[in-house]
Amino acid sequence: MLTRRRSRVIRHRVAQAVPTLILVSLVSFLILHIGPGDPALLLAGEFPTEESIAEIRQLYGFDRPIWEQYLSWVGQLLRGDLGLSLQSREPVMDLILNRLPNTLLIVCYAMVIAFVVGSVLGIAAAARRGSLVDRVATGVATIADALPYFWLAMLMVSVLALDWQLFPATGAVRFLEDPLGAIWTATLPAIALSISGIAQITRQLRAAMIEVLASPFVRTLRAKGLSPAAILWRHGLKNVGVTLLTVVGLVFSGKIGGTLLTETVFAIPGTGSALIQAAINKDYFVVQGIILMLAVLVFLVNLVVDLLYAVLDPRVE
Amino acid sequence: MSAPLLRVQDLRVAFPLRDSGDTLKAVDGVSFDVAEGETLGIIGESGSGKSTLGRAIVALLRPDAGRVELAGEDLFALPAPQLRRRRHAMQIIFQDPHAALNPRRRILDSVREPLDIAGEGSPAERTARALAMLARVGLDQAQAARFPHELSGGQKQRVNIARALVRRPRLLVADEATSALDVSIQADILNLYLDLQAEFGLTYVIITHDLAVAMHVSDRLAVMYLGRFVEVAPAATLEQAARHPYTRALLAAEPVALPSRLVTGARMPLQGEIPSPVDPPSGCRFRTRCPVAEPRCAAAEPAWRQVAPGHRVACHLVEGAAC
Amino acid sequence: MAVPLLQVEGLELALRAGRSWLTVVEDVSFAIAPGEAVGLVGESGAGKTLTGLALLGLLPRELFRAAGRVRLEGEDILSLPERALRRLRGRRISMIFQEPMTALDPVFTVGEQIAETLRAHTGLSPVAAKARAVEALAEVGIPLPARRAEDYPHQLSGGMRQRVMIAIALACEPRLLVADEPTTALDVTIQAQIIDLLLRQVSARGTALLLVSHNIGVVRECCSRVVAMYAGQVVEDAPVDALLERPLHPYASGLLRSHPRFAPHRARLPSIGGRAPAPGAMPSGCRFAPRCAHRTTGCEAPQPLLPLEGRAVRCHRAAALDLPGAVP
């Protein structure tokens, strides 16, 4: 049901995305160059010699002007070449593609949990404001916000995985090879990752729904003879749709960052744990590649959210 | 008539619209004079531009073209510091009595503020003057010490009047200043306006959508539609002998609280909605809703015609001397 | 009067104020015959909107307590459970509100909002309800109704939105329509259109109308009878023309005479003076007495609403006074 006006909005948003993408690539590129010192020195390892530095400088083109380096880097990028890992000499792109499914699985799984639990808690709390449900939901949100989630992750591992043996403690199963097993294994990390999202979604949705239920049109709906359920689930939900979308977008972006710790705690071979490993090993091209990939992911989530605004809210101009 | 206190010449105010790049011509070529001590009523519906006109008169917004002269001085030709020094001479009161008052300041402080800014007299003198003006509008010392939320709508409007008058302006513009009030409170405020005008020799521009209010307090009335005046006449003339079809429609549309035997003429509601001021109709702007429109109304803008002394109409179908 | 469609008897509404209850509407009684149009007038705070909402059981129960009786075709609305009220609202008794800008759900099309009312009360299929919604838009004078049905409220003008509200309210052919200041937010020329439409629609359906308004002019155009409220009570219930010619209650007279129309040009208006008492600070006797120019002994006693000359008046001096009305 897209009008011409809305499709114009969408085209506009997509066009606006181009400069953002360029900026993202520029920042990722500069990671290596912005720090103090000579990048060649950084790459030369622990015992650099004049020769090795000069060799590296020439190999990576550090002797050329920086914009030329950027352009050739972008050129490689467009061909899918992110360089080689300094550690394993494996192409960074292969490394990312290999690990990304594990990361995406726990992020999406966590989002589903946060969305379902947060929506139910938030709406129930708003519908029965001041009731026991409301107090429990607000309490859960406050506690979930205050909990350090890696602590919660470790607690879950020690109780649910090690003591009760309900879930595997660490590792990942490839989704394409064994979907059910993969989901099963990803459950604990996904729960740990979802906690702060549950809190955010509950709180935002509760506030938005309370505001909607207090708006004058709700009186019209009651005067029409609609049931409280119809008012809440049909009109309330559609009206908080925009808020829900916004907070889901924010939570999603946050979760992408949250994978760094979660994957490390649960020893999941994903991009987050790889990023931390690479940072420790000073594997600059891996760091650069993963950061670029994560930034593009966050950017895509925001683009989708923006596009959905135009679909959800008839008032978007 | 001596030189007018307020002279507005071919005033135009347009607002650019961000989304479409169009402009909204809120006021589109309005000219009139108001004599010292006179009350001019300006009547119009939404989109007529009457509020924008009111703000331009007191130099709260800068017009795109035209002049506003107060006592012979072109306000917008003045350098900013000099314009600021003239501001006390022209005051405006708005519809919402609450929005115009700082909720965290006591009534007395709000009324004293214009004097404090001007630095007139000692602090004690300023307080005395503010209290005297509050007393004049019917608020005692105890009420002066209160906060806005502790007063009723009518009392807050009295505070706004006191604040507007505390530096003794010559011109007072009231923009729907009694529209939010109940009839019985409105009567008190209208009485206060009339008393204060006599006492301080004020000149009024009363902007309202309420015909009965405008007719009661105004010496002359101007009817505004989509950024232009369409008819200007003495109040009594307008009530009994309005010539412009829009004025007549407005008069006929007003629901009157009279017994049926005194209500004359069947109501003929105007068809259609008020067009957008972004894209007003060609020629006469009222023609799209006018019951007597002719082809020539779309072709050319009607010129002003004088139908009686002080009674001017802009309509192709009205006979009269060009003016 | 024929068997009333609606009979309000001794309606009392109290607002929760912390632990106690504040009486805001007291001893309100009036009746509406089938197809009759009655105006409920008064100034802000008189309790007219609350009375209107109470007729549909729309006041939140946790905030308001109602006593007395409100009978719609013999059935006491105040004692009905919420579920039964829902079946009644929108089908036998409907309501429209003042704010055309905010009274419609912004994220549903106006067609959906009409169809939804139909579906809630009739067995119409979604397709049939939608078709009926388009017809309803045509009936309230909206051009290109099939196209407009797909519009969202923000795409319509204030007048058009009020037409949509009327279409929603009348979709299920209710017996009574409560209209709360339906034209107050509109321009004069648009107000005239909406009044016209409202009257044609209710008379075509034989729907009774309770028009809640502060504007006696609007009430005169729409109604045959008027109920005037002051400080939470009915002070006079009379045929509109009779009240305008010769009001029996001093407040009604004072209200009519304070209109600028009746004073000579630029002369002082005869104002009532003072302010209406606030709930919780009501005089024990006649509530208007502190502002009344005709106050004498006997006004300290509570005043009942008594029949007089075929009307009902809450003033013990009504028969003795000869008060001016809305006559120049």
Automatic annotation (TrEMBL), chain B:
Its main location: membrane. It is found in: Cell inner membrane. It is a peripheral membrane protein. The keyword DNA-binding does not apply. Pfam families: ABC_tran, oligo_HPY. SMART domains: AAA (SM00382). Residues 6-251 form the ABC transporter domain. PROSITE patterns: ABC_TRANSPORTER_1, ABC_TRANSPORTER_2. InterPro entries: AAA+_ATPase, ABC_transp_ATP-bind, ABC_transporter-like_ATP-bd, ABC_transporter-like_CS, Oligopep_ABC_C, P-loop_NTPase. Keywords: ATP-binding, Nucleotide-binding, Transport. SUPFAM superfamilies: P-loop containing nucleoside triphosphate hydrolases (SSF52540). One of its GO terms (cellular component) is plasma membrane. Transmembrane segments: none annotated. Signal peptide: none annotated. Belongs to the ABC transporter superfamily. This is Peptide ABC transporter ATP-binding protein. It comes from Falsiroseomonas bella. The lineage of its organism: Bacteria, Pseudomonadati, Pseudomonadota, Alphaproteobacteria, Acetobacterales.
